[in-house]
Amino acid sequence: MTSQSSQAAADSITPLQQMISSCSGAILTSLFVTPLDVIKIRLQAQISPFPKGKCFVYCNGLMDHICVCENGNSKAWYKPRGHFNGTMDAFIKIVRVEGIKSLWSGLPPTLVMAVPATVMYFTCYDQLRAALMLRMGDQADKAPLLAGAIARVGSATLISPLELIRTKLQSERQSYQELSAVIRSAVQTEGWLALWRGLGPTLLRDVPFSALYWYNYEKGKAWLCQYKSSDPTITITFIAGAVSGSIASVVTLPFDVVKTRRQVELGELQAKNLSPQASSLTYDVMKRIVGENGFRGLFAGFMPRLIKVAPACAIMISTYEFGKTFFRKRNQENMRVLTLQTSNT
Q: pLDDT band at 63, cuts 50/70/90?
């Protein structure tokens, strides 16, 4: 029993080490995925230029962010410059005309929101999964499903007010005193729930996505390890992350479409200081989408979402697992050194 406890202590990593691992993954994923979104937004802008007060959703593969256009040419990362004939043509022209740095011009706001949310999410998931596996007995294989859902509810709920504040700051040039006055007014008028506008559609998409992703990831990783007769490697975690992310993104796509529509409508109303005119309930938004575009409208953006989410999930989880493996080996080495020192004394 003592040897098992020592082994468990040696194999475990601390919450701080989990945070560092997830932080590294979030930064690396943002660095990789941001250029894809910059190109996508430029292509969208030339088809339908963003007028003042128009909102669009910026996603780095980890999180969605509402961006409000102050004027058509104010921000480099969605400024319509030149004509692009496709993704590769846009990539070449942006690099040639504006320099390669322009491909990462949307990175700072992404990191400000994505890194803390991802650190919180991944650390909570690991802690919850470990706790649930000890208590669920024969049903321990379902622990990732439940832990993923609970962790996503917590992280999305805590980040939602920050997203609302950031949207307000983008839509109008306000001091923090003016912003706090606006928020106090909204809270007095509508109650504290005003800080969590749009949370419902977010949870409807992100909670099932998280539950499916983690369940399929853990199952896929275990199967690949058994098939290869080896411990989890970067390749195994990369493949498991990409496949599980693809499955989850396809299943939850209708909720992603609803969330995007809800965010854009709400962001435009906030930018223009207007009150909602139509119902924002998820079911009502779905009916409007089906009425305008048919059932196919609920699966709009299938390929772009798949192309973005699959590599983002793969890079994030493989980096995270690599970091945990590094710290685990380091802890084991420290434990061995400590054991030798204790035995010598």
A: low
Statement: residue 37 has pLDDT above 50: yes
- pLDDT category at 152 given cuts 50, 70, 90 is very high
Mean pLDDT in residue range 59-79: 49
H, E, C per residue of the chain = CHHHHHHHHHHCCCHHHHHHHHHHHHHHHHHHHHHHHHHHHHHHHHHCCCCCCCEEEEECCCCEEEEECCCCCCCHHHCCCCCCCCHHHHHHHHHHHHCHHHHHCCHHHHHHHHHHHHHHHHHHHHHHHHHHHHHCHHHHHHHHHHHHHHHHHHHHHHHHHHHHHHHHHHHCCCCHHHHHHHHHHHHHHHCHHHHHCCHHHHHHHHHHHHHHHHHHHHHHHHHHHHHHCCCCCHHHHHHHHHHHHHHHHHHCHHHHHHHHHHHHHHHHHHHCCCCCCCCCCHHHHHHHHHHHHCHHHHHCCHHHHHHHHHHHHHHHHHHHHHHHHHHHHHHHHHHHHHHHHHHHC
Which domains does the chain show, CATH number per domain? 12-335 (1.50.40.10)
Instruction: Decide if pLDDT at 255 tops 50.
Output: yes
Token pair 């559609």 is found at 201
- pLDDT tens for residues 272-284? 554 554 555 667 7
Q: How far lies 28's CA from each of 152, 196, 313, in Å? A: 21, 29, 11
- Choice among 123-127, 162-166, 262-266 with the minimum mean pLDDT: 262-266
The pTM score is 0.72
Percent of the chain having pLDDT more than 70?
Answer: 66
The string over 10-46, giving b where at least 16 C-beta atoms fall within 10 Å of a residue's C-beta and e elsewhere, is beebeeebbbbbbbbbbbebbebbbbbbbbbbbbebe
**What type of residue sits at position 227?**
Y
The Cα angle at residue 8 between residues 7 and 14, in degrees rounded to 5:
125
